[in-house]
Amino acid sequence: MGQVSSVSDCLDSSTARFQQVSLEKDTTGGNGVTSVEPWAQEMPKVILCTLVVGALQTNCYLVGCERTRQAMIIDPGADPEKIMDAVNRLGVEVRQIVLTHSHFDHVLAVEPVRSMTGAVVAIHEREAEHLTHPPTLFRFFDPDISRGLAADQFLHDQDVLSVGDLKARVIHTPGHSPGGVSLYMASEGVVFCGDSLFRDGMGRTDFPGSSRHLLVRSIRMRLFALPDETIVYPGHGPHTTIGRERRHNPWVGTPEE
């Protein structure tokens, strides 16, 4: 898609508390960001931008606190120039780079983005070894991953990450990878789930360290325990909701009688 975000590809009517932003055109005369406030009486609290990056069209998320302009980047999978262009034009300070898992299409821009921002790189402790020593299979897809990466912080289930006024709870959702995590922002009603759950699908389980049994369990026991109205922002493809996937997902859904 090549765009940072828009009402159509990033947000829907149930995310009205988010600041909707687009870097497609400059109508502000300032930093090139167009803001849309759906409810004038409610000041937006969160900046949420989606960048679709790399050959596998990975969703990289830039999530920022409107008041402090502090932000985190989730899964910088490729195209560091595009990511940094969004950061600079939005005028945010990136404090954290959070990886939902270590697969190459979610981490290839980590090192340049870390170097340009000074942000701390965080990943689940069970994923750290694969980040440092990527499986041979991934090196076949992209030789650049062969040198590996080192995280600055190891995550654990139920950890809480803070950026400005925002808080994201870490939910360990293994299956697609051993240390896969989802980031749940309860007050905003959203979850960033990497490659665990997709609209009408779930993550692959034919990679080293994958487990279909664990992934199905993670989705049904951990993600489907969230409120139905929770908006799901996946690692690839369009956003959805927990309720929709719980009822209609052909792989892991549990249709109501």
Features:
Metallo-beta-lactamase, Chain A; alpha/beta; 257 residues; eight-stranded mixed β-sheet; six-stranded mixed β-sheet; 7 helices; single chain
In spatial order, strands of the major sheet run: 2-1-3-4-5-6-7-8
Terminal CA distance: 38 Å
- Write down the overall mean pLDDT: 83
Element order: H for helix, E for strand: HEEEEEHEHEHHEEEEEEEHEEH
- Please report the number of helical segments: 7
Helix content estimate: 10-25%
Number of strands: 16
Give the DSSP E fraction (strand runs of 2 or more residues).
Answer: 25-35%
Shape: globular
How does CATH name the architecture?
A: 4-Layer Sandwich
Overview of this structure, please?
By secondary structure, the chain is an alpha/beta fold. The chain has one domain: Ribonuclease Z/Hydroxyacylglutathione hydrolase-like (Metallo-beta-lactamase, Chain A). The longest helix is centred in the last third of the chain and has 12 residues. The radius of gyration is 17 Å and the shape is globular.
Topology record:
Blueprint: H1 7-10, E1 18-22, E2 34-36, E3 46-53, E4 58-65, E5 70-74, H2 80-90, E6 93-98, H3 110-117, E7 120-124, H4 128-132, H5 136-141, E8 153-155, E9 160-163, E10 166-172, E11 181-185, E12 190-194, E13 197-198, E14 201-202, H6 212-223, E15 231-234, E16 240-241, H7 242-248
Parallel strand pairs: 1-3, 5-6, 6-7, 7-8, 12-15
Antiparallel strand pairs: 1-2, 3-4, 4-5, 9-10, 10-11, 11-12, 13-14, 15-16
